[in-house]
UniProtKB/TrEMBL annotation:
It comes from Promicromonospora citrea. One of its GO terms (cellular component) is plasma membrane. Residues 324-347 are annotated as: Disordered. It holds the Pfam family ABC_tran. SUPFAM superfamilies: P-loop containing nucleoside triphosphate hydrolases (SSF52540). This is ABC transporter. Its main location: membrane. The keyword Nucleotide-binding applies. Transmembrane segments: none annotated.
Amino acid sequence: MIRTNALTKDFVVSRTRTVHAVRGISLDIQPGELVAVLGPNGAGKTTTLRMLTTLVPPTSGTATVAGYDVVADPARVRAAIGYVGQGGAGGASQVVRDELVAQGEIYGLDRRAARTRAGELLEALDLTEQADRKVDSLSGGQKRRLDVAVGLVHEPTLLFLDEPSTGLDPHNRANLWEHVLRMRTAAAEPRTIVLTTHYLDEADTFAERVVVVDHGQVIADDTADALKADLAGDLVSLRTPAADVTALAALAERAPGTRAVHAGPPGPDGGRAVEVRTADGPGAAPGLLRAADAAGLTVTRVDVARPTLDDVFLGLTGRSLRETAVQDADSPAASPTDPTTTKEVLA
Ligand SMILES: Nc1ncnc2c1ncn2[C@@H]1O[C@H](COP(=O)(O)OP(=O)(O)OP(=O)(O)O)[C@@H](O)[C@H]1O
Ligand SMILES: [Mg+2]
């Protein structure tokens, strides 16, 4: 459905300064996949989406989307895709229903068909009650659902969503996701969805595949579970009195599946947690306890923690993604040097 080969994008900012926003991204996304693209601010996520949606031309490399080359055949690409940009696309002073009808007409539906389609989308995205209100009177969550509806007007089989849930409260995030997942399977063939998010838990829960981008390159690409198992591993923490720390750590080193063992800082009683990084924490913990018991070592407490996608990013880059997530909550939409909105260009 999407195939890119060594895609790059340079922005020449001034005579002496070029931003290498995307530095050689190769991706192969199959029909029906739900892919989350993660990465810190400025990683190149939006720029990649904008190249795939024909909004900016690549500097080098190639990309085909829905079978068409983004440079040679942009009109065909646009007809096949929906795009919900980081900033949203709805006209603020429009009435909700009219906005959807107008979008339908832009995509070549006659007025009657456009009204029918608008009604279906309002229903599907739970906006029927808001249909006759002005767009700028909607709450953030309702507005974002309208953005998604606008992206779906022409029934694309492939949908790009750039931070669909940023800035929404937990209730509205859950609500938006429910709708995204429902409309994903509502079509005759499952839709392909590529989205960016700074909410790692969303990517973890909903995406079947996670692509981690950093400095314009893909640094990991797999299921969330595989990334966590391969790159981070579970953490089994065994609390033990000071006298047993060395022996327990040595025993844990020898246990099957162990990748690394560290002794945590001493507690008030001098005891420590022996922290065991292992492929399968819940599987390894009972064996560790039995071995400790057989060796006459005391374990006073056991904790098993599964890694998060943030642990994966930390393991890959030495930096945490979590810090960028908070800053980004109100990040502005399109770049100031490129004022083109989705609607203008895709229309
Ligand atoms: N039109 C432009 N002109 C100059 N530089 C740009 C332009 N658009 C993007 N950039 C730069 O390219 C880099 C990648 O930006 P991009 O918007 O793709 O990042 P992102 O991963 O979407 O980040 P965020 O999480 O903040 O949305 C950044 O350094 C950004 O400042
Ligand atoms: Mg972005």
